[in-house]
Specification:
single chain, Aminopeptidase, seven-stranded mixed beta sheet, 5 helices, 33% helix, binds coenzyme A, transferase, acyltransferase activity, transferring groups other than amino-acyl groups
Length: 165
């Protein structure tokens, strides 16, 4: 696993760097919920990106934990853990990496570090859901040794953070 990949808890300073990384290197749909309007990083989407994180991980009462993924002091993406209402002790994980940093092991390292943080937080089950065509996520999950559940619309898996090393 790459040793130069770190997760830093999101704060206002990192949020600005995260927005810059997203605008430079990712599609809005990869990194935030859909916002109506023309494609690309419109002013509305940039504001919505900031609002999204301020209302979740940076809220007075956070609804999830978000981390900036940092490689050699550069923010390259984000990883998050969102507690699941339907199952005590469970959280849903999400990760995105800027395009120019994909395919080099950053996503795999970030996911393993996120699982270690989940374990330290007392989370005993981490849920991951992606699309059937997202081969990179399927491979990340397979590398963790978990079973993938495939439906027409989604591929999902439960990961035990204590067993993920
Ligand atoms: C999914 C994502 C986080 C993976 O990050 P990454 O840094 O590219 O991941 P890695 O380099 O660690 O690669 C993980 C595995 O996927 C494979 N992979 C990476 N990009 C791939 C691609 N475009 N097509 C097929 N396989 C790919 C790698 O070869 C590796 O497999 P291996 O270990 O068996 O060789 C990144 O592609 C991304 O941000 N995608 C957009 C957002 C997204 O889909 N997030 C997931 C939501 S759950």
């Amino acid at each position: 696993m790459r040793s130069d990949v770190a997760l830093r808890p999101l704060d206002e300073e990192l949020l600005q760097e995260l927005l810059d990384a997203a605008v430079a290197d990712a599609d809005p749909l990869e990194v935030m919920p859909p916002v109506a309007g023309p494609p690309g990083w419109t002013p509305e989407r940039r504001s919505a990106f900031l609002r999204f994180h301020r209302s979740r991980a940076l809220a007075a009462e956070p609804v999830e934990s978000t981390y900036a993924i940092v490689v050699e002091d550069t923010v390259v993406g984000a990883a998050r853990l969102c507690p699941m209402e339907e199952r005590t002790g469970a959280a849903e994980a999400g990760v995105w990496i800027g395009r120019s940093h994909r395919g080099g092991g950053v996503g795999g390292a970030a996911l393993r570090r996120l699982l270690a943080l989940a374990r330290a937080d007392g989370i005993d089950a981490v849920f991951v859901s992606t699309t059937p065509d997202n081969t990179a996520v399927h491979r990340l999950l397979t590398a963790l040794g978990v079973d993938l559940v495939r439906t027409e619309d989604a591929v999902t898996a439960w990961v035990n953070p204590a067993a993920a090393g």
